[in-house]
Design a protein that fits this description.
alpha/beta; 46% helix; 12 helices; 5-stranded mixed beta sheet; 344 residues
């Protein structure tokens, strides 16, 4: 049994340890500790966006002089694409990258980023998406720390049949999911939901006659081999906004100088991701031209017809956000103004 003196001695040690913990910030990492973080990415490891994200992680490690070590889990190996965001919130991963659109309804205001507004390229889409998230900082993403946003180039129509006007869209069976399904319907086509891995065979066997996708997909998934036409529908080009976010508690526990490194590198990587999307699109265009696919440009009159056809999608977005008391109308106008400025 402890004597009274021994008991007092151990109590003194415990009290002293508590004082040390309080003095060092209750467990906040010290300057000498290695901060180990996990990063869940839904892209496969060979995808240019995964490679760009891994370069971001390496740059963080480099500038922190090894004080930060980020272990990347690509291809949904730690958390599947639709679960990445909640996985970050719940601490399954410390950092995560995926698409807002994979959990539709979870981000009602930010759904406006993906609307068919005529994004000209990935760099513009990426810059606008990041700027809009910074400006509005909506409540729907308040449970994480946002590092940056990026977004692909315009979704175009790739088809086995020529499509020169809206009349030729009628009844066309088009592979589409989520928002692009609404776009197909508004244009008079028939949306058919399926994943990207299923699309090649579906086009090959004429289960579907066309697909809506960024042109990089035609090379990345080899779908250019089983279509004959690429219709430049960038006048209503939609994008898909993708987040890079961090667990809020993990972020708050980082020393200030490490937070500064994260912020600086993330700001630089916005354009790197946008440029990577455009590089992938350029490779996609080169691929379909090498295959001698026909590229169809819509007439000026048809461009206006297609823009008018998708207007109900924009109106529906504004109405849905207003019902939730969200500033969807202002959000949409800001994007349209930025696109107009980028076009000048």
């Amino acid at each position: 049994m402890f004597t009274h003196k021994k008991s007092s001695f151990y109590m003194f040690l415990l009290f002293g340890a508590a004082i040390v913990l309080l003095a060092t910030g209750c467990g906040r990492p010290s300057g000498n500790e290695t901060i180990e973080l996990s990063y869940s990415i839904f892209f496969p490891p060979t995808h240019i966006q995964c490679i760009t994200a891994m370069d971001w992680a390496k740059e963080i490690e480099k500038r922190s002089q090894g004080r930060v070590k980020i272990t990347v889990f690509p291809g949904g190996s730690l958390s599947k694409a639709p679960q990445v965001y909640e996985g970050v919130v719940n601490g399954i991963s410390d950092i995560g990258m995926s698409c807002f659109a994979y959990t539709r309804g979870r981000f009602p205001l930010l759904e406006g980023l993906d609307l068919p507004l005529g994004y000209p390229n990935g760099l513009t889409a990426t810059r606008i998406a990041t700027a809009m998230v910074k400006k509005y900082n909506p409540e729907e993403i308040s449970d994480v720390h946002v590092l940056y946003i990026h977004a692909h180039g315009p979704g175009l129509l790739a088809s086995k049949k020529p499509v020169n006007n809206l009349e030729e869209m009628k009844g066309l069976q088009v592979r589409a999911t989520g928002l692009s399904s609404k776009i197909v319907s508004s244009l008079g086509g028939v949306p058919v939901g399926m994943s990207q891995p299923e699309t090649y065979e579906a086009l090959q066997r004429s289960v579907v006659e066309a697909t809506f996708c960024p042109v990089e997909t035609l090379k990345g998934w080899k779908q250019g081999e089983v279509i004959d036409y690429v219709i430049d529908t960038s006048v209503i080009g939609y994008t898909t906004a993708m987040f890079a976010v961090m667990n809020q508690s993990k972020w708050e526990a980082l020393p200030k100088d490490i937070q500064d490194i994260f912020n600086a590198v993330s700001d630089e990587w916005v354009d790197k991701h946008g440029q990577a999307w455009d590089e992938a699109d350029a490779n996609g265009w080169a691929f379909v031209k090498e295959l001698q696919r026909t590229i169809i440009q819509l007439s000026d009159e048809e461009k206006q017809n297609w823009k008018k056809a998708v207007e109900p999608i924009l109106s529906e977005y504004v109405q849905n956000t207003q019902e939730k008391e969200l500033p969807g109308d202002a959000f949409l106008k800001d994007i349209q103004d930025m696109l107009a400025a980028a076009d000048q």
